[in-house]
Amino acid sequence: MQVDEIYYRVTYLDPKMRLPVIRAYVCLGVNLSDEDVEGDIWYFQDVFSYYESGSALTATESDIPVVCLTDDELKGDMLDANRLHDVLEEIRTKLHRLDITSLTAG
User: Fold this and answer.
1) pLDDT for 14-56, tens place per residue?
2) Is residue 102 included in any domain, yes or no?
3) Does pTM surpass 0.90?
């Protein structure tokens, strides 16, 4: 992870994992709180609030949400652009393999 780089988080709207939702985040850093004493905690801010208000670390508003992830949570959760491309290709391949041509198909 690199501070100030953009990472992507992929979640799914459906249990069959056919409808991915991609959200972009800026990496703010690691272990930014005095409470981060057990392992590394990584901090991310969504790109929308980052664009509107700047970094949550220096913003004047106190209610800018951040996502905090442990090293274990981070492994499959925040993807760089290359890994995002791979995941999207895996989704495309899976849908093709299952012969799903419509999102309403079972």
Assistant:
1) 887 778 899 999 999 999 887 777 889 999 999 999 999 899 9
2) no
3) no
Rounded CA gap, 22 and 6, in Å? Answer: 12
**DSSP letters along 49-76, please?**
HHHHH--TTT-S-S----EEEEHHHHHH
Which of 3, 9, 4, 2 has the alpha carbon at shortest distance from 87? 9
Q: Which helix (H) or strand (E) holds 6?
A: strand 6-12
Does residue 105 form part of some domain? no
Cα separation of the two ends of the chain = 38
The total of structural domains in the chain comes to: 1
In angstroms, the CA 90 to CA 103 distance is 16
Q: Is residue 60 part of a domain?
A: yes
